[in-house]
Amino acid sequence: MAYMFDIDRFVDERSLSVSVKNKGLNYGLGCIEGIRAFWNDREKQLFIFRLEEHLKRFHDSGKSLFINIPFSVEQLSHITKQLLLLNQVTQDVYIRPICFKGSNTLRPKLNGSFNHLAVYTDLSEYEPKPFLKVCISSWTRIGSNMIPPQAKPSAGYMNSALANNEAVMDGYDEAVFLTKEGNVSEAATANIFIVRRGEVLTPPMSDDILAGITRGTVAQILHEEMDIPVIEQSLARVELYEADEVFFTGTAIGIKPVVEIDRRVIGDGQIGPVTLKIQQIYNQIVRGEMPAYRDYCTSLY
Ligand code: PMP
């Protein structure tokens, strides 16, 4: 049996009952966070990666969306650790905090009802393919003045799911969004980077992206371990096609090379040297294998 945290206690995750009338369910009035913990077999230890940063982002999302999280970052951190201990996790695991409007009344309103907080775990592999072939979506990324993608709103994932669905139905693995202005934004559930003549570029926050925590870690790896600065700059679609390397970053997906975009082969169609090096370093960092980054890893046992 797997446990989850629901409102104020740990319960069997199958026993949860949310009414079909629930406002969060009906209108997507919620926000989510996505955290990962990595098993280090040599140390027999589970490391939760950048737990505090994820929980702070969760709090910021709640504030922006008027879905205030009913627990402090410290309390959420404690709940997360307790949940992993209860579930006796000894493998890589995804952790999903969610907070949504708890009321069952009809109107789509953000005020007045209690905010239902839950945390659950998931052991399945998110994206088993080592390389991705992607397309530019016909769906435009939601703008900051529509449903702010910076705040991980549940409702924003309809936009992501439509883009992913279209991509998969058309024979691609994933989709890349453009903004309403036509700049490259992000993938359905990941940020995007390109490598071009030794430079690494990624779209800025103003191009309707989530400020990914993996994106931040990658910028740090590039700066501190590879002496390459990251340039935050709006990118045109064609700059993707002409890049030497393209990769996605995200908690669930990790560092994932993109080898084809709209049927154009990127570089030589294999993982590029910069992407490979980042991937190797990132995989060591998250498992607590690089002492300089050990502070990012909260150990469980
Ligand atoms: N963009 C979107 C829309 C996402 O859902 C995610 C996954 N959380 C990301 C980017 C990557 O963010 P992070 O590295 O913090 O997981």
TrEMBL record:
It is an enzyme of class 2 (transferase). It catalyses: L-valine + 2-oxoglutarate = 3-methyl-2-oxobutanoate + L-glutamate; L-isoleucine + 2-oxoglutarate = (S)-3-methyl-2-oxopentanoate + L-glutamate; L-leucine + 2-oxoglutarate = 4-methyl-2-oxopentanoate + L-glutamate. InterPro entries: Aminotrans_IV, Aminotrans_IV_CS, Aminotransferase-like, B_amino_transI, BCAT-like_C, BCAT-like_N, Class-IV_PLP-Dep_Aminotrnsfr. Its EC number is 2.6.1.42. Pathway: Amino-acid biosynthesis; L-valine biosynthesis; L-valine from pyruvate: step 4/4; Amino-acid biosynthesis; L-isoleucine biosynthesis; L-isoleucine from 2-oxobutanoate: step 4/4; Amino-acid biosynthesis; L-leucine biosynthesis; L-leucine from 3-methyl-2-oxobutanoate: step 4/4. One of its GO terms (molecular function) is L-isoleucine-2-oxoglutarate transaminase activity. Its cofactor is pyridoxal 5'-phosphate. This is Branched-chain-amino-acid aminotransferase. The gene is ilvE.
